[in-house]
């Protein structure tokens, strides 16, 4: 049977070259393809130090394919940390089906590593560039916590513009699904962020909301919701720019959900430099025994014990 299948589906010609790259642990091939190891259920970079047998390996072009086939990232070569290619492509390659499922299940979803070390470093370095920002908020003055953040202006950062426009497109299907399930009387969210921004502007919300937050020892962010007026896009994204354990300790990203007549539930999202999470801004629908009910979400950051923690926040509605 298998001999017959092999006749019908001959090994793709590029697979020999791919296997050769795996055999010499060729780091220059990282990102070009991934090896799925059937015996362990993990997928690897070509440069992985692991030594699978040829007959147990098949190749895929994207991490999304490996994950869709049920493979987990290898703990040794950490394929999920590999960052290359255009930012748009990286966003496209996120396993969105799985992210949508997680958002519906618990109101937040890890999106994996999205920004390179260099991009994180350039955003952190840019924090000092006044020309990129429209305003700076010292959190203590408003009772928000301890720490500081800066809102980007319109021309603030190319990385942020790409993230905001592209992530919006990916999250809009969930936003529209929630609109229907929560029976909200709002027009569906348009497919393009530029169109959505026009709607924000008509509601008087014209100022961009992406921001960088900076925390030092003892700083924290109280549980809150990023609402800036009546126009709300129900999901937002945060990307940590510093490495936990190396650049800072403490400073966990914390979320709570409040269901009707229940006590709050706390959730802590795993953080890693350059990795993103998507989460509900305020309300999300939950399927109950008597139909859909609303759960309120809040998010914040626990005390930073030491070091410096920078985080990029991408909010899709604009501010008044
Ligand atoms: Fe926030
Ligand atoms: Zn590996």
CATH homologous superfamily label of the largest domain: q2cbj1_9rhob like domain
Strand content: 25-35%
Give a short account of the largest sheet.
Answer: 7 strands, antiparallel
Please mark out the parts with pLDDT under 50 across 5 or more consecutive residues, or reply none. 1-6
Question: If you consult CATH, what is the topology of the largest domain?
Answer: Jelly Rolls
* Shape label: globular
What's the helical proportion of residues?
A: 25-40%
Give the helix/strand class. Answer: alpha+beta
Bound molecules: fe (ii) ion, zinc ion
Helix run count: 9
Computed CA radius of gyration, to the nearest angstrom: 22 Å
Q: Based on the coordinates given, report the CATH architecture of the largest domain.
A: Sandwich
Query: How are strands sequenced across the largest beta sheet?
Result: 5-15-11-19-9-8-6
Q: List SSEs in N-to-C order.
A: HHEEEHEHHEHEHEEHHEEEEEEEEEEE
DSSP strand tally: 19
Mean pLDDT, nearest integer? 94
Report on this model:
This protein has 320 residues and is α+β, with helices and mostly antiparallel strands. The chain folds into two domains: 2-82, 3-Layer(aba) Sandwich (DNA Methylphosphotriester Repair Domain), CATH 3.40.10; 88-315, Jelly Rolls (Sandwich). Helix content is 28%, strand content 30%. It is built from nine helices and 19 strands. The chain has a seven-stranded antiparallel β-sheet. Strands 7, 10, 13, 14, 16 and 17 form a six-stranded antiparallel β-sheet that branches. Helix 4 (87-93) runs parallel beside helix 8. The longest helix has 24 residues, at 158-181. The model is unreliable at 1-6 (pLDDT under 50). The protein binds fe (ii) ion and zinc ion. The site of zinc ion (ZN) has 6 residues, from loops.
């Amino acid at each position: 049977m298998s001999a017959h299948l092999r006749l019908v589906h001959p090994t793709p010609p590029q697979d020999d070259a791919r296997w050769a790259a795996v055999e010499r642990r060729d780091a220059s091939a990282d990102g070009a393809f991934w090896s799925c190891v059937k015996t362990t259920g993990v997928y690897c970079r070509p440069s992985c130090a692991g030594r699978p047998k040829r007959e147990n390996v098949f190749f895929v072009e994207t991490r999304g394919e490996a994950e869709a086939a049920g493979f987990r990232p290898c703990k040794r070569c950490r394929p999920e940390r590999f960052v290359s290619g255009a930012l748009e492509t990286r966003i496209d390659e996120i396993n969105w089906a799985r992210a949508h499922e997680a958002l519906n299940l618990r109101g937040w979803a890890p999106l994996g590593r999205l920004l390179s070390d260099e991009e994180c470093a350039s955003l952190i370095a840019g924090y000092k560039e006044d020309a990129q920002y429209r305003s700076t908020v010292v959190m203590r003055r408003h009772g928000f916590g301890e720490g500081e953040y800066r809102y980007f202006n319109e021309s603030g950062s190319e990385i942020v513009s790409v993230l905001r426009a592209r992530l919006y497109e990916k999250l809009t299907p969930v936003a529209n699904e929630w609109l229907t399930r929560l029976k909200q009387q709002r027009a569906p969210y348009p497919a393009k962020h530029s169109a959505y921004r026009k709607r924000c502007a008509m509601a008087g919300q014209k100022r961009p909301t992406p921001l960088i937050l900076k925390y030092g020892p003892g700083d924290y962010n109280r549980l809150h919701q990023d609402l800036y007026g009546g126009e709300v896009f129900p999901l937002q994204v945060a990307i940590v720019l510093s490495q936990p354990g190396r650049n800072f300790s403490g400073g966990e990203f914390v979320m709570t959900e409040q269901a009707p007549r229940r006590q709050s539930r706390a959730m802590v999202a795993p953080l890693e430099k350059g990795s993103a999470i998507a989460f509900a801004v305020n309300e999300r629908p939950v399927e109950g025994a008597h139909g859909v009910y609303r759960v309120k979400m809040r998010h914040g950051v626990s005390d930073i014990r030491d070091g410096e923690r920078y985080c990029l926040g991408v909010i899709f509605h604009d501010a008044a």
